[in-house]
């Protein structure tokens, strides 16, 4: 049975996708079987590993119109696979709203794949809508990437409310697996203050590794490979590798 982790934060551009792909790549490199699930109609995760978005993907998996294993694509990284997004997922957003037990679609869809992997990583869109809700219901743990800026803290309250709602009504297994900082720039004074406040509130839930701002991380997706294949020696790569070690160590 895989450990299913959802990357969630309704704030846009905080590093959900970058973290899912690069943590996935380093955990795969460590010998674990990892399945990435691109649950964002933007399709950034699919692009980040050069997946073919014209083939059946997560939408077909949700609707059950295809054998689950048929939507999985391999990547350039050994042990790292992906269920890509499809543009139809935008439609699923609307279609799901009227369905009974609409919160459980992704969980049901991923169940048959769980045996094949050690980790399943779900990347969510920047909202707390039905797609992110499905992600939270499907997961054992939620990972929250945060940018070190003042508004990051404001969004956090809303996210915590959604997580509590899911824990109470839909998925009692769900726990906060970890919070980590991305795009850290020590020259920005507020950054250090945000880190201190979040550690003060969440304590040991906060991972020790902080991901710095590093341009190589933003370049890698345009080559369709994770950072371990693009520039394994850059500071961003080294920190994602360290963070991956922490994730594995937490079990
Ligand atoms: N540590 C970093 N250093 C520099 N650039 C980064 C870093 N992490 C992410 N980026 C870049 O910042 C942008 C936003 O990152 P990303 O797409 O991972 O965020 P996201 O939370 O998934 O966004 P969205 O909410 O739109 O899905 C991207 O262009 C990405 O390449
Ligand atoms: Mg994203």
Automatic annotation (TrEMBL):
Gene3D superfamilies in UniProt: P-loop containing nucleotide triphosphate hydrolases
UniProt-listed Pfam families: AAA_31 (PF13614)
AAA domain sequence ranges: 4-176
Coiled coil feature spans: none
Top-rank lineage group of the source organism: Bacteria
Name of the protein in its database record: ATPase involved in chromosome partitioning
């Amino acid at each position: 049975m895989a450990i299913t982790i959802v990357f969630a934060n309704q704030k846009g551009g905080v590093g959900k996708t970058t973290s899912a792909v690069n943590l996935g790549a380093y955990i795969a490199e460590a010998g674990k079987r990892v399945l990435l699930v691109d649950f964002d109609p933007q399709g950034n995760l699919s692009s980040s590993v050069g997946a073919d978005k014209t083939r059946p993907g997560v939408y077909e998996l949700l609707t059950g119109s295809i054998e689950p294993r048929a939507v999985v694509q391999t990547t350039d990284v050994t042990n790292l696979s992906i269920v890509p997004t499809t543009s139809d997922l935008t439609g699923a957003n609307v279609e799901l709203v009227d369905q009974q037990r609409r919160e459980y679609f992704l969980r049901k869809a991923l169940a048959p794949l769980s045996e094949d992997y050690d980790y399943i990583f779900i990347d969510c869109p920047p909202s707390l809508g039905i797609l992110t809700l499905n992600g939270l219901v499907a997961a054992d743990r939620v990972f929250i990437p945060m940018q070190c800026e003042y508004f990051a803290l404001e969004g956090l309250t809303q996210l915590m409310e959604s997580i509590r709602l899911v824990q109470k009504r839909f998925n009692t297994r769900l726990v906060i697996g970890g919070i980590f900082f991305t795009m850290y720039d020590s020259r920005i004074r507020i950054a250090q203050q945000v880190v201190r406040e979040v550690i003060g509130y969440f304590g040991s839930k906060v991972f020790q590794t902080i991901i710095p701002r590093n341009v190589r991380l933003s370049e890698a997706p345009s080559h369709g490979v994770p950072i371990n294949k693009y520039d394994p020696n850059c500071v961003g790569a080294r920190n994602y590798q360290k963070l991956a070690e922490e994730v594995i160590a937490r079990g």
